[in-house]
């Protein structure tokens, strides 16, 4: 697994912006650290000469200059940091999405949509917040602390007094080392439980229609409630530890201030230091409390963000299962035969073979029908053809070439796959049909719609081919959805068309018309039809019957009827059903 360095890479490519932002904020803080010194001098002046108009004017102008200088420079620096944070968020989300598009189906079957959404939403935001706030406050606090210490050292305040007063503050680094790892561990738990909640919400929303029909809302609420409870529990554990940590810092700051008042006051009474020095010292120490508290906040936020950053880096390091060989060539499938020889396949993480010793030849231009019980391996067979999963080397050849030697693009571009439950996007029906090539002419979209027998329905939709589907759009029936997705397969006019149970939701008359259109439009092109109904495949040049991953029968409709096997008994049952229905 190649380690990813999301944040480091980003910082490397934006270093100039970082340096500029840091410089602006650094100068702003150096200017601000003059503030106690000016007030100290003011006090000494007051003591020496009493209050005069000139003193008031001079010091107000100096303070105004400090205020303006700090405000402008700090504002610009802060803007740059925030901008960097937002750009990081944008860049990371794009990078994640690009990465998602490279991952294989097996990754998606292991990770729910909600979990993936959580990476894009929660984790990226956690890192961005820590980045903007972290950089901002770290620079502010560190520069301010250094400037304050420098100003104290070059002032007339004795070093031993400074050392004693600053002593409690030295405990802070130890507190950080002690609390840091626990904060990070608890933050990882919070992020994980957020991911679980998003996953659960996605599942519950997706299944809301089923839930409603079965009136099982309490179960739904219970399931979601559990994930929310888990977040609360994990967040409270995190809050407990961060609160202790954050309370400790101001306490140490206050302690140092008390020491300065007691010890500094004593030295002032005995004239070891001036009243102005005493005022400056307390102001300096007061000025150190905020940056110290900010450092605590930043460390907490950084620890939380580290947990998210680790999750993101791990995700970006996931390699797709299906990788193209460096020597892969684009294949031309126009006149390619398909050969399967001794093909045995088991899904990753499964001990059972989904396909066993498949030997099959599909000559180009022919129609293959595949039938078999549910779970017999029909879909698996065509997934291997699309290389959604990898068949063992040497077991599947297309046009004489091993499938592993073909580029994925050439393979998938020349095969049209129509699944049983084709997904339709929230766009117009026209765009859904022309999904493969958005600029297809309306004529070709209409032709595909006619071939898949959805044309007449579309004419009745409110905006016909421009009718918007999906969320806040028009809802199609199951059969209409299936035929729209079939039109998507027709319009591609690919050398190989695979219909995976794609006419299961249409009535017998429509099915016959679709099959007839298929035969007309796909002369000399390879077509693979998976079906449960014999009526959908009986015209095929060759039919295979799959049972528990094995080909148990192979031949034409007539040949298989003549055999004493699954096909003939299936035919008898389905015929009986048809006769019964017709007799009703
Ligand atoms: N992603 C997967 N991971 C593990 N096992 C799987 C996966 N997909 C399918 N299977 C298993 O492989 C076997 C064959 O499944 P396949 O989907 O090919 O059957 P099918 O004949 O198409 O079924 P149906 O007619 O119900 O669509 C089944 O036992 C199924 O549980």
TrEMBL record:
Protein name: ATP-binding cassette domain-containing protein
Start and end residues of each ABC transporter domain: 338-573
Keyword line: ATP-binding, Cell membrane, Membrane, Nucleotide-binding, Transmembrane, Transmembrane helix, Transport
SUPFAM superfamilies noted in UniProt: ABC transporter transmembrane region, P-loop containing nucleoside triphosphate hydrolases
Organism of derivation: Paenibacillus foliorum
Cell wall biogenesis/degradation is among the record's keywords: no
Keyword set includes ATP-binding: yes
Subcellular location(s) per record: Cell membrane
Topology of this chain in the membrane: Multi-pass membrane protein
A GO molecular-function annotation: ATP hydrolysis activity
Top-level taxon: Bacteria
Major location category of this protein: membrane
GO cellular component: plasma membrane
Annotated transmembrane regions: 15-35, 59-81, 138-154, 160-179, 244-263
């Amino acid at each position: 697994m190649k380690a990813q360095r999301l944040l480091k890479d980003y910082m490397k490519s934006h270093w100039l912006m970082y340096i500029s932002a840091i410089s602006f904020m650094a100068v702003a803080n150096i200017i601000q650290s003059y503030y106690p010194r000016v007030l100290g001098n003011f006090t000494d002046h007051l003591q020496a000469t009493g209050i005069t108009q000139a003193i008031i004017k001079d010091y107000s102008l100096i303070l105004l200059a400090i205020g303006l200088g700090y405000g402008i420079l700090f504002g610009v620096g802060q803007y740059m940091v925030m901008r960097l944070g937002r750009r990081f968020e944008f860049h990371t989300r794009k990078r994640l999405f690009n990465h998602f598009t490279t991952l294989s189906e097996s990754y998606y079957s292991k990770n729910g949509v909600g979990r993936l959404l959580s990476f894009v939403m929660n984790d990226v935001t956690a890192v961005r917040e820590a980045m903007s706030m972290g950089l901002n406050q770290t620079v502010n606090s560190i520069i301010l602390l250094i400037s304050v210490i420098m100003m104290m050292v070059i002032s007339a305040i004795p070093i031993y007094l400074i050392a004693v007063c600053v002593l409690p503050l030295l405990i802070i680094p130890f507190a950080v080392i002690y609390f840091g790892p626990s904060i990070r561990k608890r933050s990882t738990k919070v992020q994980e439980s957020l991911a679980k909640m998003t996953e659960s919400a996605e599942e519950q929303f997706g299944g809301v229609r089923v839930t409603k029909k079965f009136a099982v809302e309490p179960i739904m609420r219970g399931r979601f409630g559990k994930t929310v409870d888990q977040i609360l529990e994990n967040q409270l554990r995190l809050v407990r530890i961060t609160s202790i940590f954050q309370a400790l810092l101001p306490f140490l700051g206050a302690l140092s201030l008390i020491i300065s008042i007691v010890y500094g006051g004593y030295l002032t009474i005995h004239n070891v230091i001036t009243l102005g020095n005493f005022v400056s010292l307390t102001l300096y120490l007061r000025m150190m409390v905020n940056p110290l508290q900010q450092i605590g906040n930043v460390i907490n936020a950084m620890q939380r963000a580290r947990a998210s950053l680790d999750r993101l880096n791990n995700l970006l390091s996931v390699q797709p299962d299906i990788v193209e060989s460096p020597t892969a060539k684009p294949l031309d499938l126009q006149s390619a035969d398909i050969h399967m020889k001794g093909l045995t396949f088991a899904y990753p993480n499964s001990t059972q073979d989904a396909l066993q010793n498949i030997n099959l030849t599909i000559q180009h231009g022919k129609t293959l029908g595949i039938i078999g019980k549910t779970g017999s391996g029909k879909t698996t067979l065509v997934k291997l053809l699309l290389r959604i999963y990898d068949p063992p080397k040497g077991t599947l050849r297309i046009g004489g070439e091993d499938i592993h030697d073909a580029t994925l693009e050439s393979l998938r571009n020349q095969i049209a796959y129509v699944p049983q439950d084709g997904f339709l996007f929230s766009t117009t029906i026209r765009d859904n049909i022309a999904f493969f090539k958005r600029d297809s002419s309306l004529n070709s979209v209409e032709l595909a719609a006619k071939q898949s027998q959805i044309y007449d329905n579309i004419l009745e939709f409110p905006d016909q081919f421009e009718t918007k589907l999906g969320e806040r759009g028009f809802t199609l029936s199951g059969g209409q959805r299936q035929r729209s997705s079939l039109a998507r397969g027709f319009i591609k006019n690919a050398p190989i068309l695979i219909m995976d149970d794609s006419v299961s939701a249409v009535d017998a008359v429509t099915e016959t018309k679709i099959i007839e259109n298929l035969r007309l439009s796909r002369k000399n092109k390879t077509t693979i039809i998976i079906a449960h109904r014999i009526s959908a495949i009986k015209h095929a040049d060759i039919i295979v019957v799959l049972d528990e991953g094995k080909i148990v029968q192979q031949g034409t409709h007539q040949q298989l009827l003549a055999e004493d096997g699954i096909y003939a008994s299936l035919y008898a049952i389905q015929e009986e059903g048809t006769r019964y229905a017709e007799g009703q």
